[in-house]
Amino acid sequence: MTRTTAQGAGTSHTTVGITDLMTSLAVVFILLFAAQMTKTSSAAQSELQENREDVQTALQDHIQRLGLSLDADPRDPLALLIVVPENRLTFEFGKSTLSSTADAFLAEALPFYVGALCGPLRDKIDSLAIEGHTDDHGSDALNLKLSQERSLAVMVKGMEIIQAREPSAYQCFQEITSATGRGRQDLIYDAAAIVNREKSRRVIFKIRLRSAEQRHRLDRPTTAL
């Protein structure tokens, strides 16, 4: 009887030992996994920062010469924004017809930007979105429709300009570019919390960078079937 109890105790100690070993191995695995994830995340952030700086360096001088700015999107870490105020990209009141001032601006700006995004920077760029924004005059539906029509007018004009001035980038421009209207959803307010209608009426070129995962996926060799 005593021998059976001793054997049971030995078996129990052995089981506890194996359990402790498995727990220790699991903890080590979790720590190694966490360290690898941290390292991967850090590398991805470093790569993203480098890509962002490359885009900023390539476009900054031209953007500053036009009196614009290239800023990070506070809502999307992968996006950079070129905000074009109404006095540079103007439309007929309540319409989507581009003014002569807008035509001149697009003819000067787009060939350079698209040439860079579809040329030396192509492997870093995921997309280019043209966003139209209005002020708070009129209904939500009216402003949404107007902003969509205006952003599409900019894209169509851009296609005409790129085809004539930068034909090698034309196919790429179509592939990466989209037009969308935000209406009055992103109004700009002044210090007194009053809508700044002049600043709210704007067009934004949103340059979205490829994520590290997207770039690595493109770098992988494809296997023929």
List the helices and strands and how they pair.
Layout: H1 2-65, E1 70-73, E2 76-85, H2 100-117, E3 125-133, H3 140-165, H4 170-176, E4 177-183, H5 197-200, E5 202-209, H6 212-219
Parallel strand pairs: 3-4
Antiparallel strand pairs: 1-2, 2-5, 3-5
Helix pairs in contact: 1-2, 2-3
Characterize the structure shown.
By secondary structure, this protein is an alpha+beta fold. The chain folds into two domains: 2-39; 47-218, OmpA-like domain (60s Ribosomal Protein L30, Chain: A). Helix content is 56%, strand content 17%. It has helices at 2-65, 100-117, 140-165, 170-176, 197-200, 212-219, and strands at residues 70-73, 76-85, 125-133, 177-183, 202-209. A five-stranded mixed beta sheet has the order 1-2-5-3-4. Helix 2 packs across helix 3. The longest helix has 64 residues, at 2-65. The model has no long low-confidence stretch (mean pLDDT 85).
Alpha-beta content class: alpha+beta
CATH superfamily caption of the largest domain: OmpA-like domain
Spans of at least 5 consecutive residues whose pLDDT stays below 50 are: none
**Strands in their spatial order, largest beta sheet:** 1-2-5-3-4
Helix content: 55-70%
Number of strands: 5
CATH topology of the largest domain, anyone?
A: 60s Ribosomal Protein L30, Chain: A
